[in-house]
Amino acid sequence: MAEEQASPIATEAELSDRVADLVEYLVLSIVDDEDAVSLEVIDGADASVIEITVADADVAKVIGRHGRTIKAIRTLARALAARLGTSVEVEVLG
């Protein structure tokens, strides 16, 4: 029985979606109102931008004290993106 392997060449959108899945998982574990969380992935020429929208009451939780939480999320997202051979930026819209 032969197993099918995924195509070794993934599109930029597929790669940024994998990073967005990680970001979504992290954000959902932080916020109280999970239904208000939405992510939009904007694929650009140089990098993809992941825009996070959360409830007003959860913005401070996602950003964290002195921006430590969002910095950690960005670090993890960039590390995964680098491993996948792409680059991303993470922005919190509120």
In words, what does this structure look like?
The protein has 94 residues and is α+β, with helices and mostly antiparallel strands. The chain has one domain: K homology (KH) domain (GMP Synthetase, Chain A, domain 3, 2-Layer Sandwich), CATH 3.30.300. The chain is 44% helix and 18% strand. The protein has 3 helices and 3 strands, in the order H-E-E-H-H-E. A 3-stranded mixed beta sheet has the order 1-2-3. Strand 1 (38-43) and strand 2 (48-53) form a beta hairpin. Helix 1 packs antiparallel against helix 3. The chain is globular and about 40 Å long. The chain starts with 11 loop residues before the first helix and ends with a strand.
Q: Name the beta content range.
A: 15-25%
Distance between the termini: 50 Å
The level 1 CATH classification is: Alpha Beta
CATH topology: GMP Synthetase, Chain A, domain 3
CATH architectural designation: 2-Layer Sandwich
Helical proportion?
40-55%
**Helical run tally:** 3
Protein name: RNA-binding protein KhpA
Keywords: Cytoplasm, RNA-binding
Organism: [Collinsella] massiliensis
GO cellular component, one term: cytoplasm
Which properties best describe this structure?
3-stranded mixed β-sheet, 94 residues, single chain, 3 helices, GMP Synthetase, Chain A, domain 3, globular, 18% strand, alpha+beta
List the helices and strands and how they pair.
Layout: H1 12-30, E1 38-43, E2 48-53, H2 59-63, H3 68-84, E3 88-92
Parallel strand pairs: 2-3
Antiparallel strand pairs: 1-2
Helix pairs in contact: 1-3
